[in-house]
């Protein structure tokens, strides 16, 4: 045994007696060893020997539960506690518990704030991002300048004319599609074969869903130029 370990073992009874009196709660030898090993460097054998010695001297109490021994301070050495003292201690415990909860909540708030600050951009990173945004804005400004300087812009009048022509063509297309649908429905109503066979026999391309193909067939056969051409 080293000199330091021997000195610790010699002072073990005093250390353990003081510890049990301060804590005033039951401990096993393993508990005491685990709690004091790092602080005082006591070995387990020294702890067991010191506890047994203190129990034999009557300085602490020993209780046996099965194969385990429990040690605690002699309660006769402590003053009797009145009900008023117990109530005062209970009130103190409640106050301290509330204080602990308040401190824990403050710690959580500070941890959240620290996490937010840690995830935020640093000043150099922010300056770099500002420079990149300025460069991007300069590119957009130059692009907008080139667009405004172009001479092939579509005037509002031209745009309106294209819109009106599109509406006219769409209206005509819907009208011819409806006419084609009605025409083919009338033909197929008395036709003894399937729709597909009819288109094959008539040498026409098969229609798309909704007879859109039939509408295109009729449009291709119908003279263009509006309702005036049909009247003629």
From TrEMBL:
Residues 12-73 form the Homologous-pairing protein 2 winged helix domain. It holds the Pfam family LZ3wCH. One of its GO terms (biological process) is meiotic cell cycle. Keywords: Coiled coil, DNA recombination, Meiosis, Nucleus. It is found in: Nucleus. The keyword Nucleus applies. Belongs to the HOP2 family. This is Homologous-pairing protein 2 homolog. It comes from Sus scrofa.
